[in-house]
Amino acid sequence: MKRFLWLLLACSTPLLAQRPEHTPDVPVEKWTGKTILLIGAHADDDALSHGTLALLEAHGNQVFVVTLTTGNVGTQDPNLSRTQLAGIRRAEELAALAELGIPGDHYINLGYDDGLLEFEDRKAVVENLGRWIRKLRPNVLMAWDPGKNYQRWHKSDHRAAAYLAADAARAAMWRLLFEGQITQEGLKEYMVPEYLFYNDYDHDDENISVDISDFAEKKINAFSKYVSQYGPGWKNYKANLSDAEIQQQKDDARTRVRMKDGKAFEGFRYYKGLPDGLGK
Ligand SMILES: [Zn+2]
Question: Backbone phi, then psi, for 267, in 5-degree steps?
């Protein structure tokens, strides 16, 4: 029996040693001097993390947001064209990021069509995203969670964005993948060391929560900028809301802030290690 136990220990120890770490060495609330890159499918995907982004920006980190699509489809207003909607979504995103203290030139839109991300040329998208990862060399990549619960998500663009971000992180670390970026564009291969994955539907995979109490108001103000996506602008867009409508937008945004023990928080699945294991 004893021998069996030793055998069991000997077999399991290497496995335990290889388990990915689920807690950052330094709590997110104390991060400083890091470069953070958030990848999302649509303008407002980053809203799930706005409290954390505002906190990180205020604490001396550099925050960049890459949005894959222009958001040129999601409206119920019969009078908006795709071009108009894309322009509105860009302006709203810049206004939201400004509320968080994130400069406009830290917003990058890759221009893919809303609703069809998973039908794009995956190799081209991964190359495109990988280029930004190699350029910005983020200490932390934030993305839709490609983990085990992804299949229950409602939107195909979110599933696609989760995989594309993960695949781009993996591709960026190999010198011989998309090597023209290295031989022709002056970039270097890069391995993202840490990840924060967000999810709007199933929070079972979350392993850390970030206290955003001091930044909840910024999160609410930023969310109220998505006029074409929530409130009266969803069905009948107008650029300028009345004071009462703005207040209603903020009240709605407040109901979306997650609370625990009286404190506002955002939850994430934290991962550290090789990108190959980030979906496990
Ligand atoms: Zn979205």
Answer: -105, 150
User: What does each of the 280 residues of the chain score in pLDDT, given as a tens digit?
Assistant: 444 444 444 444 444 444 456 789 999 999 999 999 999 999 999 999 999 999 999 999 999 999 999 999 999 999 999 999 999 999 999 999 999 999 999 999 999 999 999 999 999 999 999 999 999 999 999 999 987 666 555 578 998 999 999 999 999 999 999 999 999 999 999 999 999 999 887 788 899 999 999 999 999 999 999 999 998 899 999 988 999 999 999 999 999 999 999 999 999 999 999 988 887 6
CB atoms within 10 A of CB 202: 15
Compute the distance from residue 194 Cα to the ligand 1 centre, in Å. Answer: 23
Between the CA of 57 and the centroid of ligand 1 the distance, in Å, is: 22
Question: Which residues share a beta bridge with 209?
Answer: 267
C-alpha 174 – ligand 1 centre gap (Å): 29
Q: Tell me which DSSP letter residue 74 carries.
A: -
Please list all protein residues whose beta carbon sits less than 5 angstroms from ligand 1, which is an ion.
41-42, 45
pTM: 0.91
